[in-house]
Design a protein that fits this description.
- With about 425 residues, this protein is α/β, with parallel strands linked by helices.
- Helices cover about 30% and strands about 25% of the residues.
- It has three domains: about 110 residues, Elongation Factor Tu (Ef-tu), domain 3 (Beta Barrel), CATH 2.40.30; about 140 residues, Rossmann fold; about 80 residues, Ubiquitin-like (UB roll) (Roll), CATH 3.10.20.30.
- It has eight helices and 19 strands.
- The strands form four sheets. It has a six-stranded antiparallel beta sheet with strand order 4-3-6-1-2-5. It has a six-stranded parallel beta sheet with strand order 10-9-8-7-11-12, with helices on both faces.
- Strand 3 and strand 4 form a beta hairpin.
- It starts with a helix and ends with a strand.
- The structure holds flavin-adenine dinucleotide.
- The site of flavin-adenine dinucleotide has 30 residues, from strand 4, strand 5 and helix 2.
Length: about 425
């Protein structure tokens, strides 16, 4: 028997403390167990997430990095676009494990063509003419005919090879093509929001199709104006099989920020019904700044231009005169500028320091690459139109200027010899 009520209270308190301590210990152990289990789960979850991220990263890296040099591609489909002289080629890697490298709309592919009977391969560049993210690359090649002032000259070697000898898998030849990774700085980010004007003249439509299709697919509320200039409906390929992404007419109707204007500079008689029935869509005349002024609310756009040289020179000059900042005019030239004397250039002494040669540049030959070649100083070159950067040379002393806009951005202290002229005496490291 307990002798004092305080003694009873003491025991009760003690037991309560023990019980509470017991519960606390059990609860602590249970919490620790739960925490440990939670820790294991969390670390497994993190591991799984990390694994998935690594797989994605590897995939993205594979897509980004692509392959080194040239890879074998098969022509999965060849589409001839009516009387336009243009053929589209849908290309897939021969080795199905090879992932297509990502590209930015506007970029191009480099082809190494091994022509029958020719020792040296031929390098040619063709813009990707469809949007990124598909399971093929597409290029659209215009057959290059002899120039009007030399009608007896042979037609273009590379484009003739594509048209006459490259067949799709169903064809007799089922050609393989050696293709380099997508390349080029003439490109656009389709997910950006700045309003753009895309101007394609003739075959210069190809990079614009890639840009337009990418925007229409991923970002159709972005303000985008596509101007396409051709001579007539026979040259016009824009609504031809597969050129635009499927359902483009519905997209154009659904998204008022997407605009398309087609200009026929010399329409055929049969084109009048098109011009009359769709005056907003079809215009008679050339693509040019007067048309932009009549349609665009301001000049506050980024302009992308690709087309025949004369058209590009005119549009570039007129845009600058309209007050568009130089950095908002992006151009892609498909061929070397016509050899034209660089008028008004003061004679300058050009020294090729490595070759220990020199000469006087008077502007007779249009650019430093031609001048160097004429002086017996070969400079490696490829596109000769300011796109690839192959003919870049370091400047030892002096300055150069660029009569025409080029896309390839030379690092400071170097120059792109195919596209520049000297500004006074110049020493080059070649
Ligand atoms: C970045 C870039 C992207 C491009 N994208 C495309 C594209 O998407 N689609 C496209 O079709 N092209 C594109 N090109 C142009 C393409 O690369 C070729 O330049 C074009 O196909 C002509 O090459 P070719 O071998 O057929 O002609 P070439 O053999 O180089 O001949 C060019 C011209 O010279 C003429 N010629 C030949 N010999 C003589 C002679 N003795 N005297 C006078 N004239 C002569 C030919 O008749 C022809 O008109 C692009 C170019 C670049 C740089």
């Amino acid at each position: 028997m307990l002798e004092h009520p305080f003694e009873l209270a003491g025991w009760v308190t003690l037991i309560a403390v023990f019980v509470a301590a017991g519960f606390h210990l059990i609860d602590g152990a249970r919490r620790r167990k739960l925490l440990a289990e939670q820790g294991v789960l969390e670390s497994e979850f993190l591991k799984a997430k990390l694994g998935a991220a690594r797989v994605e990263w590897d995939k993205a890296r594979e897509r980004e990095v692509g392959w080194k040099g040239f890879a074998n591609f098969v022509v999965a489909r060849k589409v001839e676009h009516g009387t336009s002289g243009i053929c589209s080629f849908y290309l897939k890697p021969k080795d199905s494990r090879l992932k297509l490298a990502d590209f930015k709309p506007g970029q191009h592919l480099v082809f190494e063509l091994h022509l029958p009977g020719k020792q040296q391969p031929l390098t040619r560049r063709y813009s990707l003419s469809d949007r990124p993210g598909l399971d093929y690359y597409r290029v659209s090649v215009k057959r290059c005919l002899p120039p009007r002032d030399a009608p007896d000259a042979p037609p273009g070697v590379g484009s003739s090879y594509f048209h006459d000898q490259v067949e799709d898998e169903g064809g007799a030849l089922g050609n393989l093509l050696l293709v380099g990774c997508p390349d080029g700085s003439f490109s656009l980010d389709p997910s950006a929001s700045e309003p753009v004007v895309l101007i394609g003249g003739g075959i210069g439509l190809t990079p614009m199709l890639s840009m337009f299709n990418a925007i229409a697919e991923d970002n159709p509320t972005r303000e985008t104006w596509l101007f396409y200039g051709v001579r007539d409906s026979e040259e016009d390929v824009i609504f031809d099989e597969g050129m635009f992404l499927p359902g483009v007419s519905d997209l154009l109707a659904a998204y008022p920020n997407l605009h398309l204007h087609i200009c026929y500079s010399r329409p055929l008689d049969q084109d009048s019904s098109l011009l009359d029935s769709q005056p907003g869509r079809y215009n008679k005349g050339r693509v040019g700044v007067e048309l932009f002024k009549s349609l665009l609310p301001s000049n506050n756009y980024r302009f992308y231009i690709c087309g025949p040289e004369a058209m590009m020179n005119q549009v570039e000059d007129d845009l600058i005169a309209w007050g568009v900042p130089e950095e908002d005019v992006m151009s892609e030239r498909f061929g070397p500028p016509k050899a034209k004397a660089a008028v008004g250039v003061a004679p300058a002494t050009i020294t090729f320091s490595r070759s220990e040669k020199s000469g006087i540049f008077t502007g007779e030959v249009g650019n430093l690459l031609d001048f160097a070649e004429a002086a017996g100083v070969p400079i490696p070159s490829d596109c000769r139109s300011g796109a690839c950067g192959q003919c870049k040379v370091a400047i030892v002393s002096g300055k150069v200027s660029y009569p025409r806009r080029v896309n390839y951005k030379c690092p400071p202290g170097s120059c792109l010899t195919c596209s520049c002229i000297p500004e006074g005496d110049l020493e080059l490291d070649c």
